[in-house]
Amino acid sequence: MADPRKQPEQWMPMPEAPANCPPGLEYLMQIDQLLVHQKIELLEILTGWEQANKYVVKNTMGQQVYFAAEVSDCCQRQCCGPAREFKMSILDNNGKEVMCMHRPYRCGFNCCCENWRPFMEVQAPPGNTIGYIKSEGCACLYPTFLIMDAAQTPVLRIHSGICGVGCCECSPKYPVRSLDGQDVGLIQKQWAGITKELFTDADNFGISFPMDLDVKMKGVMMGALFLIDFLFFEHSQNNN
Question: What 3-state DSSP class applies to 47?
């Protein structure tokens, strides 16, 4: 796994953590927006051999907040594509794993079987579950996801429009709403330009949420961003 301390980016200073904040999530208490940039893998471009994804997570000032690295089986990456099982390891500026997301193997997004729908568990710190993401129903063009707390009680819902399934050259939006339909945040893929979109599956995302949102739910929303990337945009390189 790449060591984030070797990256040239400027890191966000570590804020003081309150007593009720999981270690490592104190960064999120002062943030209402994050930018997530997937790092381009040269070997993948040249050979088409799927590499483990890596991401840089920054605040709006350009300071790096986290480094995210996929941990997965090589054979599953080549054979199962976006359906593969993976762990997303989130590291802070000391190289310490402060959060992780686990996504089990799923046969496909449109599966109507309850036990095979996309699902992700989020832990912070590793070993301490703070929430889950789960797709709802058998939606095809208009998928929705539930953001749930550690007791699997629904807290928020992520919606998408017809462009939310990664079918066209635009910047798909995924509004995050309360259970009664009030807008509380947004996950959006940023169009990266024709060359990058055609020849790599490296994606850029933005995510916004209320400053006073429970820091654990901010972490779970980060997990939802990675799940959305794998479900709708990870396949682009293989198709090309």
Answer: helix
